[in-house]
Amino acid sequence: MRLYSYFRSSASFRVRIALALKKLDYEYAAIQLVKNEQLQPAFRAIAASQLVPALVVDDPAHGEATLTQSLAIIEYLDETFPEPPLLPADALGRARVRAIALDIACEIHPLDNLRVLRYLQRELKVSDDDKDRWYRHWVETGLDVVERGLADHPSTGRFCHGDRPGLADCVLVPQIFNAQRMQCRLDHVPTVMRIFAACMAEPAFAQTQPSACPDAA
Amino acid sequence: MRLYSYFRSSASFRVRIALALKKLDYEYAAIQLVKNEQLQPAFRAIAASQLVPALVVDDPAHGEATLTQSLAIIEYLDETFPEPPLLPADALGRARVRAIALDIACEIHPLDNLRVLRYLQRELKVSDDDKDRWYRHWVETGLDVVERGLADHPSTGRFCHGDRPGLADCVLVPQIFNAQRMQCRLDHVPTVMRIFAACMAEPAFAQTQPSACPDAA
User: Fold this and answer.
1) Contact A149/B48, CB-based, under 8 Å?
2) What mean pLDDT is predicted for residues A155-173?
3) Is the pLDDT of residue A152 over 90?
4) Out of A62, A65, A75, whose CB is closest to B94?
């Protein structure tokens, strides 16, 4: 497998964690977002969206194929390499885990990614201060929703769902890295931060964090 | 089942289509977003995210439960009521369908939903013209990505994946409704529009469209 990744891309980080939890080997192909490598024709031919991550797999049924969208990639990995499972066995548990992942992947992350921040600055002439305030607003209000879904829920364990890391944790941890880098407030989300600490004690998370990537600055 | 929905919410529309494709009966509970009913304590107790849709189900294993996040809800429905399937049988096909759905649900829709547009206007003092330009920018560039993933792909059929409507179509059609309402350019996405027309010829899509909802203005 070959993963097109950028060390600071939180969507790439999600997939790196999932690959590490599954103990899968892969080639790391760095796409430097700050140099706009994702906009070059060579990468556009790999991913129409011009977004990382993309994962090239040798599918058992169809041969070589390129997968995009981090959550779709992780679901594919979970279906193709079932151990350890990243989703619970019951449909209701799976719905909960997917909803936590989507609360971050749909409600927080898209508002704060690089192309959106660039549009705010270049097209709407938003000031740096207002851009940072925008960033923190969606992170802080979005994580508050995640916190309320985790705190006191009977299925929350050492990790987002039970005592084994899964899809929701793969999405939560990279978002906290972004939040910390942008100095967002995090004292209102104690359950989130407890789970973050539990994840970072696991090699699959620690060894795939941005600073551990081959392309880390 | 009880669906908390708003007639114009495209995330609600996705779930309405899936419920109709599965021929499942449900009670329709209107949440008027323009009146901010989603921000009231009564609804916050149902959905921490204060976003529609939310679906109350009687889970076979766990009893009454409330599901949130449209894509997680649709996956739950597909697992719990398998016929007709909304995802392909093969892992690679499922990854493709989920990626198309996420190309819309993560890259287009979050940027154009009501709370984001309100933030642009109220907090960043963006003009109405610039707000509309922002809206159209993400729809038009985002649909271009979807078009490139559909056009000439061997798995694209009468619908996004093969000749039966599925998850990707449930997400695509509501986005086109939004695009048309905001007068976005659509002449650059002919495959998208061909599939949109095929969907709208199906009762499950036509009968759940915003104007057909009990709370339509």
Assistant:
1) yes
2) 98
3) no
4) A75
- Alpha carbon distance A6, B48 (integer Å): 32
Class of domain A91-205: mainly alpha
- CATH 1.20.1050.10 range(s) for chain B read 91-205
Q: What is the distance between the alpha carbons of residues B104 and B142, in angstroms, rounded to a whole number?
A: 7
DSSP 8-class letter at B66: E
Confidence of residue B179 (pLDDT cuts 50, 70, 90): very high
pLDDT of A110 above 80: yes
Which residue ranges does chain B devote to CATH 3.40.30.10? Answer: 2-84
Question: 8-47 in B: which are within 8 Å (CB) of A?
Answer: none
Contacts of B59 in chain A (CB under 8 A): 91-92
Condensed to tens digits (0 to 9), the pLDDT of residues A56-72 reads: 999 988 999 999 999 99
Report the mean per-residue pLDDT for chain B. 95
Distance CA B75, CA B176 (A): 22
Whether the complex's predicted ipTM is more than 0.95 is answered with yes
State the residue for tokens 């790439």.
Answer: A12
Chain A CB within 8 Å of residue B109 CB? yes
Compute the distance between CA of residue B21 and CA of residue B204 in angstroms, rounded to an integer. Answer: 5
Burial label for B74, CB within 10 Å (0-12, 13-18, 19+), is buried
Q: Does domain B2-84 have CATH number 1.10.3210.10?
A: no
Chain B hits for A137, CB-CB cut-off 8 Å, are 119, 123
Higher pLDDT, B189 or B36: B189
